[in-house]
């Protein structure tokens, strides 16, 4: 007794200080494993940035700042990468399970509110209905205390908490009040352990990003030996190392070498991919979809299985009254008033409160009651008729019991000598089973003529002559946009798995309501442990109930093991680890903080109907980036081919860096930016890198051979260096623009306008005096002009043939027909987002 009294007085200030000094305060390790320094190191201190910056500084040191324009692309890449990953770090660092900013404790015998981080081991917590438990604690005293642990375990039913029971951090107090002693804080608490793994940094799976990284790795292996070959060739073109150093011509050789090396790095492709992701994220943000990592926009376009948590995703989480099913032809008087009292009871749970709207009748106060318990699964009230309150069907005299049918009928002494009561009970249970099989939550109202007295209420013993009166059914409110969204996924070939911690029958009923073929639902308690066997079950069944948080994660892993790209949606902390392991995690704004922090996409208004828009945006980005990647990789291909060809021939590289910057901008940079923003709804098809390289490599070789022919023959004809470079720039510009023509098909007015504008831009750069002077251009001779014409015509014919072959081989995955393109562009222009997130056509 003395120990309990000591506990109930709480800690003293001195005891709190001792625990803080020992590190026993409720402070968890919130930072992610990704430090700001590691982000900077990954995005700034890279091999390619080192090469680019070295070339940039070398040109400045040589006084050739005009040739250093390529440095701007490298700086832009680094800034975008750092900002993107720092945003992800901040989201992870803010990961916190606790919603409550304050905790209620007893210190020095006085109840006070403190910050959650100030709670220490052995603190006396005061918890009341509506509170979130901020640290693991052991209950000392409880008055009808119930905790909702669904965010942690997935089980939606409240759990009774009696003295000696454990309160888990992160659970919600949904009824009663109590006092509890803190037994675990910080990283040792249940919630912290559950989410610790979710806080680790990781990037969403992205084929675009991984393919580009693979290309960069290949170039990394090739660039140094090619760099040596190029430098040697340029030096030899000026008479060899000794002569070039003595004459100072090594400066020109260095500039040419920088041009050759920088041309091999597809800096613009990385930048364009980041920009396309960022623009997609901004567009989706306008429709209340928060993209926490830019590559997630691509991710959902690749998903072929989406796992949905029932509560908060398919349903709103609200309970709605469904109907009353009478079990007797002559119900006792006062049924409506008894139900009205249950609905109006201030301590009623969410299910009972649904009765208030359906039964608004007035009712007298009961003379005795037995509180609802999640263990008993029923509550009882008694009226003696003396309080008046007669209504349309009379006063509610006697004892009225409301609860789960099988528990209500098992909660009183069985009358084995009353066959009529046994038959009535059997009929009630059979009818309840029928209703439960439809997935509806079912409660039974039973009546006894005997009036429950206070003593019986204390002992929680029901009268023996209970008569089943009416079955009440309830449904979870299904989101009005869920069915349409699931139909969209079915049409697009995306499979759906519904996994929930609730009863399989309930989950199956909700799934059927939104149009899924659910059967009876699979009880997750029967799931195999082996992931391969689990994957087989997941192929055969689509709806699962009684799924634990660990099983949700294993189901995601099993689907990935069988080759699926998996998206996982949810709102509870119990979903966090599964969302973390999925290829793409999606959370609702109403969900737990932990879940939102590890998700890649958050639906800010909780509308499931936004997901088709995310899929469409992802498809647009993938299809368009694949198109523009062929432009960038063609450049890398001809840059490497030129470097090797001219290196072997010991020729000087035929272009200055500034000339390359202009041709790159006109043939690749500007059109790529515009093409990346066009509508495109092609379904995702694996093999992005193979398709891109199958066009870029042969095209690059054609361009390199054409440039070698023009440059080599011009030097043979005795053209000056400026004229040779001008001829090379014209040849490269015209062939690069023809690559743009091939990749822009089928033409629309927008794409045709872009191509024409680039041709005009090339013509202006060759004729405007100030530009000609800046680019150091000079008109070649007539024979060289003829060579340019021959090389361009032959090159265009070969590029056209490569394009024709590529469309025949891969066309279904990379292009739209002209009619489809025009129809899609028209829909983008004329459709507007509806208020509910759907797209609607404005009336004329």
TrEMBL record:
SUPFAM superfamilies, per the entry: Calcium ATPase, transduction domain A (SSF81653), Calcium ATPase, transmembrane domain M (SSF81665), HAD-like (SSF56784)
Keywords recorded for this protein, A-Z: Hydrolase, Membrane, Translocase, Transmembrane, Transmembrane helix
Locations listed in the record: Cell membrane
Membrane topology: Multi-pass membrane protein
Keyword DNA damage: no
Sections of the chain in a coiled coil: none
Transmembrane segments: 42-62, 218-238, 258-282, 628-650, 662-680, 692-711, 723-743, 750-772, 784-805
Keyword Transmembrane part of the UniProt annotation: yes
Domain P-type ATPase A, residue spans: 100-197
MF GO annotations: ATP binding; ATP hydrolysis activity
Record region (Disordered): 822-844
One GO term describing the cellular component: plasma membrane
PANTHER family found in the cross-reference section: CALCIUM-TRANSPORTING ATPASE (PTHR42861)
Name the UniProt record assigns to this protein: HAD family hydrolase
